[in-house]
Amino acid sequence: MTRILNSRGVQKTSVSLFFLFVGLFSIPATSSDSAVATYNGLQIGFEEFKYMVDHAPATVQSEAKSNAAARYELLADLMVSKSILRKIQSLNINGDSDNYYKFQFQLIQLVKAFDKQLFQDGLEIPNLDSLALERYRVSKEEIARKPETRQLSHILLLCTESCDVEKKKAQLQELRQRLVEGDSFPDIAAEFSQDPGSRQRGGRLSRPIGLEDENVDEVFRLTAFSLSQPGDLSEIVQSRFGLHVMRLEEVNVSRLYTFEEIKPALLKELEARYREDAYAAYFLSLAPDDNLHINGGLVDTILGPLPNASAP
Length: 312
Description:
This protein is an alpha+beta fold.
């Protein structure tokens, strides 16, 4: 039995129906596709609604299975989307040609994207292991070199444009001298450093840094890589954050990743390239051949005649 749903006395839920696509709304109900809901000349077919529910997020499915308001909103939102589609499809080339063609060309882009996805879903990927090994063999210095990194601890005294730099340097020089004389770096950093993150770790940075690590201040990086041995202290240096004394903790030397370590990344890269090349070949196969007839006169009306074009 068909029931007409209404919202009287029903509290609407906050279900987000972001998963509804334009293509879904244009599905016509067939004679064998019973209407789940009808409104203002529109209807939602059984198979159409089933598809939507099957592809909805689990939370939406769960709510709709147990909550009348969620069911109503599910159907109402789909009906609103169908109403919008009907409105857009009624655009008249003579009455509003700009929006008409804007819609048509956006629709073409959506169709092309959908076709590309269908192509990729059906594409068989060959075994790419041998290509990955060859890529590693030929380009391992380029793709598999892990650069040297350094683990550091530091003590920071903040110094903005208005601070007394010399006074801060004198304060930090006293702390550095205590370190030279054997005081504990973690203890000094915990007490005096003004970097709230590393201070809690006794001045130790959260991760090693590399010489080309652009997320780290250049002065800091260059100073870090000027230190020779773990335990070495830097002189006082000034970055955009303030004044630092650093201690080198560890040197992680540069090395080559093994093939097995980077094989998954190489296969992912090669598969992506294979997919793009395969789709490009497929796309070119659809291009018209030399039998494409072009009305040159009409083209010239829009683009103008080609330079040095001979008169007909």
